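#struct-help
A.M.: can someone run this one for me? Single chain, 100 residues.
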Amino acid sequence: MSSRTGYRRQSAADLRAALATRDAAIEARAQEVREARAAARAVEADRVQLTRADIEGATHVRDRWGWHRVVQVNAVTVTVLIALTGTELIPFTRVIEARR
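D.P.: on it. Structure tokens below:
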């Protein structure tokens, strides 16, 4: 075996080892993300869902995008003022907090 062939074999082995290390790191990170998503789902399931009575009379509501001024409280949604686009409907299930 020439020294050139041995060098190629060594390089291929190094490459396989590096790829295996990378794949292990990617899988570990993917597992962390799965666990974080499961924890977020558990927190969301435990969150108190606001009702119409809770939101009626509120001046502002918060959803995952931030705080919005309440225009009108409907049967199952809240009409809020969005700065650039006008108004938008947010279902009660998406309202995180209401301020009076």
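A.M.: thanks! The chain has two helices and five strands.
D.P.: also worth noting: The longest helix spans residues 3-46.
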